[in-house]
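Reading group handout, session on sequence-to-structure problems. Before we discuss, look at one worked example. The prompt was deliberately terse, the way you'd type it at a terminal:

> structure Glycerol-3-phosphate dehydrogenase [NAD(P)+]

The input record follows.
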Amino acid sequence: MANVTVLGAGSWGTALAMVLCDNHHRVRLWTHNERHKIEMERTKQNKKYLPDVTLPDELEFEHDLSEALHSVDVIILVVPTKAIRETCKKIIPFINSNTIIVHGSKGIEPQTHMRISEMIAQELTEAKYHSIVALSGPSHAEEVSLRHPTTVTAASSNLNSARYTQDLFMTDYFRVYTSKDIVGVELGGALKNIIALGAGISDGLGYGDNAKAALITRGLAEITRLATVKGANPLTFIGLSGVGDLIVTCTSVHSRNWRAGNMLGKGHRLETVLEEMGMTVEGVRTTEAVHQLAQKLNVKMPITNGIYDVIFNKKSAKKVVDDLMSRDRTTEIEDIAAILTNRYSD
Ligand SMILES: NC(=O)C1=CN([C@@H]2O[C@H](COP(=O)(O)OP(=O)(O)OC[C@H]3O[C@@H](n4cnc5c(N)ncnc54)[C@H](O)[C@@H]3O)[C@@H](O)[C@H]2O)C=CC1
Ligand SMILES: O=C(CO)COP(=O)(O)O
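And the output record:
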């Protein structure tokens, strides 16, 4: 049994805390909002983020970080990407060289273009901690909280820590694989949110399954193209963090990114969409970050650029699709081969 603290009591942090309770760890769930802590303690529910789910009796709720992190073995960091840095700053006094930090967030930071583990490492430069693990894969919180079969990957440059994370979470309904390719796993998890926005936009425009299959497949090609330039293993993208997470996010009504895209495709304004959702839609900031990064690295990402234009330049979604369809003719297999060779020509 381990002492585990989940930082971030949104839908994903809560679902992961439930998995850990099923594995009989001591689990504390920390929220930055004191009223939220009191409400969860009183009702045994997380009404806003995971309605209709009863939380386990053993789950402890915390608002005070010193209480939450006292004698902790593993921290599960599941706040939105924009809150990663401030949360890391707050935990410095409570961690030591044995603390493993597992994160479940999916995003890239605009301007720095950093992945989550890079942001964590940068914020904790002066602090002592053991290692960082990314937990990612096709996993909607709503289904995990119902104990429906789910598979994810624990990735770390420290394979022992990835294996430790596998043991920590693995249950009969939550299967965890390990990987050393943290670059690929984090980029796959973050960049699929851009394509999910696109799938939602396409559905909002009334296009069908052909268009969505095209977005998923060619989206996978451009994710792999950028990620291999950043040092990822291209094979990671035929796995859970690539094709797996693209399928679940582009085709499920649970996806906040798909839902936001769907409203954009129907002509709603971005501000209205985000306000109505009231939950984290990581794809918007990640689109900004990846649009910048692709330009900097000179990587072709036509779908991402089109989605950027819809979100940030108010270009009509229909015009973006027309422009994507009328780009210069090209080959398919040679393009994919070029992606793979790029990796091995380093
Ligand atoms: N919901 C899901 O099914 C999955 C979500 N994720 C990722 O998990 C991360 C968190 O997403 P969700 O839990 O879905 O978001 P959510 O929108 O359900 O909840 C966000 C939580 O973060 C808290 N929060 C906001 N600002 C904060 C701050 N400055 N400091 C501390 N806490 C803060 C909110 O109070 C809320 O409890 C995202 O990066 C998302 O991409 C990954 C896999 C599945
Ligand atoms: O990452 C997810 C599923 O794997 C959740 O996706 P959304 O953030 O779009 O809901």
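Points for discussion. First: The chain is about 50% helix and 10% strand. Second: The two ends are 43 Å apart (CA to CA).
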